[in-house]
Design goal:
Helices cover 2% and strands 37% of the residues. The chain is mainly beta and 679 residues long. Strands 20, 21, 22, 27, 28, 29, 30, 31 and 34 form a 9-stranded antiparallel beta sheet that branches. Strands 5, 6, 11, 12, 13, 14, 15 and 18 form an 8-stranded antiparallel beta sheet that branches. The protein is flat, with a radius of gyration of 30 Å.
Length: 679
């Protein structure tokens, strides 16, 4: 029975007392309710008294009375993070007086697209070798590009039904019949270049090792719960002139496809780098048939040097993604030169400084700088940045030590042409022809965690002229990458304008060259320095509601959906609410599950299919740390519950996961899940 799946209206007051009303020290008055029915055998951990199911009081389902919206229910296994959100969830429900909303600058959110929710699993690699029913697709030392097979069941991948797969020896499979990719180097995902429509547990240039290596596959279970597994066994990184030269590398990994819920798992077994550790540079991810939508599992692109330490699970569903950008503020100028400061490194300088190019001037120099602290740019973690003489720093490392300057005919940005993934306080075609010892480029990492700063400074640089004739320009500016807040700060010192012309770009651009933020609004035509600092603040990945996954309809025409109303979930918003659309009409028998996790609950991994509990096609997406019930729907099946959010800075950045349920439709119906990120 559905009633046995989700027990409604269990008060656990001792485990979690209700908050008083604002302006009162008393508890919220408890309505007179008469005798209460005891749930047989129910006990709170560490409690002497049983949990109690409130007595019936009429309504559509008379076993359950209408419960005050103050009543919020916690099991005793409340996690640390849920404890942190008690104030958020209960102060709102108790009607506590809240302060005015705090300012927030949330990122934009994309239109939901068919994609996957990623979760981690404990390692559980079980080799296929020797198991009955295992087929060897590619044997040891064979350089066969791939083998096409018919899938044992129709598998839905990024919303498209697939009946065949092509297993590639290079550590991925794809759902097309394109044969290529014999030794094609791996690329990042998503990517419009071939291959597309792929699952890549460890895509690199591989060959099965002598004797034991091979690519295997096997199907386990019976319909509708079959599991199709592909295993790359004892694979080697290709090295040397002979394709199967044994360099000692041994890589074992699997991709598993699940018929029951369309999920995908990646598992990793024994790993040995042998003598070619420096050659291992794999891609781990998923990509749709267009190459436009994909998941970079580790955020390392095509540079994974070793196996992950966990397994991964991908659950299909409609997913909204944050769209990162930056806001620009103009604080008072604060330029202070680091040239010659203790610990500062000179990157390019006049001859005879190495790597001087000789002659009277130096042009198109650069240096790569290791970031020794966590730093995110356009929402991605960065570890290495290239500082170019031309007043720009790039994370795509496309400029090299002889980077190009802003062209003589300035190009508006964003622009997909390289460089991309850049920040520039003064991107111009610059050269070094001032002979002063401190002329050139300097960089310095200062401070201590979590407030470290990389400062890059351009000193006395000049506008490039043919023949390296000194134009008389002198450019002095800085750029900082700050660990705290992932800020990009541009600062301006003295500027001497000589023969010119000066036409610099000031701003930041993402890695695809499709989005940029102009620091001055002048595009690539800046001739004079800004009169203030420029601070680029990344949009907050908070203050948003991100729906994910798919609901189940029960007996309804379609699965209900979760949404929000009353503004963004930012601290101080007294009107924020979660909504359910498409639920049963005029019903009190609805509830809301709130939790701190969408990956684990008690001993279960999430998302958790509920088919074994008699609820086919239903999935639990959130830990059931809090259950609110009953929640009434109107004649159209719409429900809303207000969750005022306190003006409490300590909860900013935390997430609460949510999912509505309706147990009597006549079988269990559930919405998709939603992540509420507090801003």
């Amino acid at each position: 029975m559905a009633e046995d799946l989700l027990v409604l209206a269990i008060r656990m007051e001792k485990a979690f007392p209700r908050l008083p009303q604002a302006g009162s020290s008393a508890r919220v008055p408890r309505p007179s309710e008469g005798p209460e029915a005891v749930v047989p055998g129910a006990r709170l951990a560490g409690e002497a008294r049983p949990a109690r199911l409130t007595e019936a009081r009429g309504g559509a389902h008379p076993r359950y009375r209408a419960v005050s919206p103050f009543e919020v229910f916690f099991p005793t296994e409340v996690s640390h993070m849920v404890q942190r959100f008690r104030t958020l969830l209960v102060a709102g429900l108790s009607g506590a007086t809240l302060l005015a909303p705090a300012p927030a600058q949330p990122c934009a959110v994309s239109t939901p697209v068919q994609s996957y929710i990623r979760g981690v699993l404990p390692p559980s690699f079980v080799a296929l070798n020797g198991q009955p029913g295992t087929t060897v697709a590619i044997g040891s030392c064979l350089t066969t590009t791939s083998v096409q097979i018919n899938l044992p069941f129709t598998f839905t991948f990024f919303g498209q039904a697939k009946t065949l797969a092509r297993i590639q020896k290079n550590g991925f499979l794809h759902f097309t019949n394109f044969v290529g990719f014999a030794n094609t180097g791996n690329i990042t995902v998503p990517n419009s270049a071939d291959p597309d429509d792929l699952i890549a547990p460890f895509w690199d240039v591989l060959v099965p090792a002598p004797g034991t290596g091979g690519v295997l596959y096997r199907t386990d279970g019976a319909a509708p719960n079959r599991i199709f597994t592909v295993e790359w066994r004892d694979m080697m990184i290709v090295s040397g002139a002979v394709a199967c030269f044994d360099n000692g590398s041994r890589l074992n990994f699997q991709a598993r496809l699940f018929e029951a819920d369309g999920s995908i798992q990646l598992h990793y077994g024994p790993f040995a780098a042998g003598t070619v550790a420096s050659l291992i540079s794999a891609t781990i991810g998923l990509e749709d048939s267009t190459g436009a939508v994909g998941i970079d599992v580790t955020s390392l692109g095509n540079l994974n040097p070793v196996f992950p330490t966990t397994a991964f699970r991908f659950y299909p569903g409609a997913v909204s993604n944050l769209i990162p950008t930056y806001t620009v503020t103009t604080p008072a100028p604060s330029f202070s030169s680091i040239a010659g400061a203790p610990g500062a490194t000179q990157a390019f300088c006049p001859p005879p400084c190495v790597p001087g190019l000789g002659g009277a001037c130096v042009d198109d120099e650069g240096v790569n700088i290791n970031l020794t602290f966590p730093f995110s740019f356009w929402g991605e973690a960065k570890v290495l940045v290239e500082m170019s003489m031309n007043g720009i720093a790039t994370f795509d490392l496309s400029l090299g030590t002889n980077g190009a300057g802003n062209p003589g005919n300035p190009i508006p940005f964003p622009n997909p042409a390289t460089p991309n993934d850049w920040a520039a306080p003064w991107w111009e075609d610059l050269e070094l022809n001032d002979p002063a010892a401190n002329t050139g480029g300097w960089w310095l990492i200062s401070g201590s965690a979590p407030n470290r700063v990389l400062t890059m400074e351009w000193v006395n640089l000049s506008r490039f002229t043919t023949g390296c004739v000194d134009s008389g320009d002198r450019i002095n500016c800085q750029m900082e990458f700050r660990e705290a807040g992932n800020l990009v700060v541009m600062k301006y010192g003295t500027q001497v304008i000589g023969a010119g012309p000066n036409d610099a770009s000031v701003g930041v651009e993402n890695k695809t060259g499709t989005v940029a933020v102009d620091g001055t609004g002048n595009g690539p035509n800046n001739s004079t320095f800004p009169t203030t600092d420029l601070t680029f603040t990344p949009c907050s990945p908070n203050g948003v509601v991100l729906p994910f996954g798919n609901g189940c309809p029960g007996g309804l025409a379609a699965a209900p959906t979760i949404g929000s109303a009353g503004g963004a979930p930012v601290i101080g918003n007294a009107t924020f609410a979660l909504t359910m659309t498409g639920g049963p009409a005029n019903s009190l028998a609805n509830g809301l599950v709130l939790g701190a996790s969408n990956t684990t609950w008690l001993v279960f991994n999430l998302p958790m299919a509920l088919g074994i509990f008699g609820a086919p096609a239903c999935t639990l997406f959130t830990s059931a740390d809090i259950i609110l019930s009953p929640i009434a729907t109107d004649p159209a099946g719409f429900a809303t519950i207000t969750l005022p959010i306190p003006n409490q800075p300590s909860i900013v950045g935390g997430s609460v996961f949510a999912q509505f349920f309706s147990p009597f439709t006549p079988t269990l119906a559930m919405t998709n899940g939603a992540e509420v990120r507090i801003g």
